[in-house]
Amino acid sequence: MNLAFDEWIPCVRNNGLTSYASLADCLSDTDITDLVVRPHERVALMRLLLCISYASLGIPNNYKEWLEVRDNITDGTKNYLKKWRNSFELFHKETPFLQISGLQNPSKSKKNKNNSDSVDEEDGSLTSTAKLDFSLASGNNSTLFDHEALNNNRAATPEKLALDILTYQMFSPGGLIGSVVWDGQTTGRTSSDAPCVPGSMLHTFVRGDNLLDTIHLNILAQDELSDYAALGDGWQGKPIWEFFPKGPQDSEAVKNATQTFLGRMVPLSRAILLFPDGKSMLMGNGLTFPSFSNAKNPFPSEPSATVVLRQGKKNEQELVLLGVHIGKSFWRQLHALTVQRLDKGSVGGCLALTHAYQDSSKGIDIIVDGLARDQANIVDVIESIFHVSKSLQSKNGHMFYKSEVKCAETIASALNFAIERWRFLVDGGWPVRLKVAGAKKREESTKLSAQAARNYWTSVEQGLHFLMEAMDALGTDAFCEKQQIWHRLLKNCALSVYRETCGQESDRKLRAFIMGKRVLLGSIYKHLNLPAAKELA
Questions:
Q1: Do residues 482 and 470 make contact, with C-beta atoms less than 8 angstroms apart?
Q2: For 204-295, where are the alpha helices, taking DSSP H only?
Q3: Residue 192 has pLDDT above 70, yes or no
Q4: pTM to 2 decimals?
Q5: Max Cα separation, the chain?
Q6: Torsion of CA 240, 246, 249, 253, to 10 degrees
Q7: Cα–Cα distance measured from residue 531 to residue 259, given in angstroms and rounded to the nearest whole number
Q8: How far apart are CA 435 and CA 432, in angstroms?
């Protein structure tokens, strides 16, 4: 199967129907509206499509040259894919896509040095291709929703294998892994993170009217890549298929693949060789990538990542990647995701925002993708789409949005405190049970408030358009009224959830309810722009 010209990428077209497309189709067909894939798969495909675009056309020097790229993508990438078509063959004997053709099983390396096809499953060192799909039960992945987990004969189609191996090479978390022999050297049992997974980082892309426009909007100019340019001569590098490492000791090729802009866009984080049966593969540790999150082996942040300031352990501010926080929706971090990076090494969202804001008159749309991991375990994958208005692109808009999210979080904390106050007054033995819980004190204390918090944030999110309307009214006579509408929403959501959570069935519960409500209302009228009410009396 040839990934350049055979159809394997799930897409949606202008008529609303879904179909498969080749890489060449995605880079030429304006009828393709978008990808129809999971969040981490979108990130992987976008990086591959962007890498091909850069390799075929070069990295534009500035904004003016970037504008001209759009008209050249189709012809340039088509010719490039024809030239390198063998590197995009999934089962090519010499250059299989993102695989190592001479990979061997350690116990068979002497006996079958030049014949990897002779390795069979009875050896016990083969890995199921299900390992490449984080949603399937394999290794650390849960079996909860995978009803075919015990099916040893489960085989993946070539289309699925292509998407899975591409995604796995970019998002595989570090941990223990099997050993393989690559160019005569047995790989170690410990693997490091692939480039897209450290810190469960969020990946943001600017969205266009169709896929081809989306690709163009996320191509970067050299003056937007100052962090990479600081690496010195040759920072641009070459795609992995143009300078494929012969082995772990091929220092020049390894450096290109791990420490250059284009080299790491489509990474070789794992040494893999797929078998045509679609069931099994050889897999071991691949190349080790420096990363923004690794203090001992640092590197500029990924172009799609967001960098924020965080209070360090010694009360010193440090730059970190904005990551997925389970239970915290992306809209609560939108002010960080939409900040334009103005200087080298500064905070801000994805690098494509620089020219997207410059080329925008009515605002832009962004897609935010994230994969949450807990060490080697994959917890969740999440995607959200937002419209970034001109108001939100401004400094005042950012400050207002950030402050209003802070207000909503303050009311959430007040709601939690009010619920805890109610429980303390209703249940006299509650403090004792918390003390007995010991290390599980936090888990025990949040059982009631956690569900309340989820209900509160769900209700608030349904009225998010009121916040956007208030932000768009900044500097106008309508601002105060719009802000109060948003603040009344926060108040009503908090009070509604408090009533649902805290009972009033007995005199004791009713007294506790009144005391807790008084605490909640005090915080509401302290932090929100609302006129004082008789409720506080």
A1: yes
A2: 211-218, 226-229, 251-259
A3: yes
A4: 0.89
A5: 87
A6: -30
A7: 57
A8: 5
CA distances from 341 to 213, 227, 346, 353 (A): 22, 11, 6, 8
Q: CA–CA separation, 34 vs 17, rounded Å?
A: 11
Report whether 328 contacts 354 (CB < 8 A): no
Q: Which of 256, 355, 238 is nearest to 303 (CA)?
A: 355
Report yes or no: 108 and 102 within 8 Å, Cβ to Cβ: no
- Domains of the chain, by residue range, sit at 9-285, 307-393, 396-536
- Integer CA distances (angstroms), 68 to 106, 467, 529, in order: 51, 37, 48
CA distances (Å), origin 111, targets 114, 116, 275:
9, 10, 19
Return d(Cα 52, Cα 47) in angstroms, integer: 9
User: Bridge partners of 104?
Assistant: 181
Please name which of 464, 436, 444 lies closest in space to residue 331, comparing C-alpha atoms: 464
Write the pLDDT tens digit of every residue in 72-117: 999 999 999 999 999 999 999 999 999 999 899 887 654 444 444 4
User: Does residue 408 contact residue 460 with C-beta atoms inside 8 Å?
Assistant: yes
Angle subtended by helix axes 73-83 and 211-218, to nearest 10: 90
- The CATH architecture to which 396-536 belongs is Orthogonal Bundle (1.10)
pLDDT in tens, 26-69: 999 999 999 999 999 999 999 999 999 999 999 999 999 999 99
